[in-house]
Amino acid sequence: MQNPTNLNSLPPELIIEILSLTLQSTPQIRLRYSLLKSFSLVSPSFQHAAQRLLFEDVYIYHETVAQAFLTSQRELDYSIQTLRMFGDLNWDGVESLGTAGEVVRSARGVGSLALWYFEGIEGGVLEGVHLADLSSLLLSTEILPSTEDELPLNLSFRLTNLRLSNYCYPSSLISSLFSTSSNSLTTLDLSSYGGSQGTIDSSIIDNFHLIAPTLLILHLPPITNPNFTSQLALCTSLQRLHLLETDEENLSSTFQALSSTRLISLSTRLPGSEGSERLRFLCDLVRLGDKFSALKELGRLTVLRSAGVLEEDGAEIVLRSCMNKCAEKGVRLVLEK
């Protein structure tokens, strides 16, 4: 009969569960790594479980970490669920673009990939069967066209979640991402596309129709191009829309474009720096309440950046009126700071 105190006799599934429950309350990535390192010293069975969990979520923030990862992958070849990597535009991240490409190509089973702050990494790093399991992609880095004539990329994955931020991306990359994920993409975040204030360029506008019908959640920067606004009508399955910021004119046309969707939640940010400016916009926003009836499923309107509004003279009466008008349309108005 086995000694119950012998840790090596514990089933691997139980050890994984013990370690996973411990890590749930530890969101800091480096502390998680430290805990897993300590667990690996308990016994051989704990070492195997700790290494398996370590490689499920890989965070590479320095050239030496990237080199260590490559060495361990050659020796262990663990499957990876999440891979996050920072380039050298972020303090002292991974300096070599060649190393960054090698890391991505050596990873196996990656379901979620995030690349930040590389200076000119080639889009071709996303090509190949090594990323066949990829479903979530975050790009916040400069991407160069793989070829001078911007031929489409040969992508092996179909995304459900895509976030593109801080840069405008080559048309060849956008068309390839959108076309390969045309029947699978449900969440698209463009709120900081092109920079902190966000902008929508022709690469997005020309290819948006490919992924619009399946989108459930959409994050957008301020919409200034009417050609893009009109394409929102293609988002027939859309349930949640987050607008970084808007004005009365653009919001009115946005409501009109969304009238054929299944939108249940809309959030936007109040413009301006003064409470009076934001309160005035909120009134203008609610005055568009007649448009709510066109959005038959809309049940929640969240207004962000509402700090300062409550301090304005007569704000309480105005806000109560706004909320009542929304309620008449079956819409709950939520103010968030």
The CA-CA distance between the termini, in Å, is: 61 Å
Low-confidence runs: none
Q: Secondary-structure element sequence?
A: HHHEHEHEEEEEHEHEHEHEHEHE
Helix content: 25-40%
% residues in beta strands: 15-25%
In short:
With 337 residues, the protein is α/β, with parallel strands linked by helices. Helix content is 35%, strand content 15%.
Question: Characteristics of this structure?
Answer:
globular, single chain, 337 residues, eleven-stranded parallel sheet, alpha/beta
Note down, in words, how this protein is organized.
This protein is an alpha/beta fold. Helix content is 35%, strand content 15%. The protein contains 11 helices and 13 strands. The strands form 2 sheets. An 11-stranded parallel beta sheet has the order 1-2-3-5-7-8-9-10-11-12-13. Helix 11 links the parallel strand 12 and strand 13. Helix 2 runs antiparallel to helix 3, helix 4 packs parallel to helix 5 and helix 10 packs parallel to helix 11. The chain is globular and about 65 Å long. The mean pLDDT is 83.
Strand-helix topology:
Elements: H1 12-24, H2 29-39, H3 44-54, E1 57-60, H4 63-76, E2 82-86, H5 97-106, E3 112-116, E4 121-122, E5 136-140, E6 143-144, E7 161-164, H6 171-180, E8 187-189, H7 202-207, E9 217-220, H8 226-231, E10 240-243, H9 248-257, E11 265-269, H10 275-287, E12 300-304, H11 315-328, E13 332-335
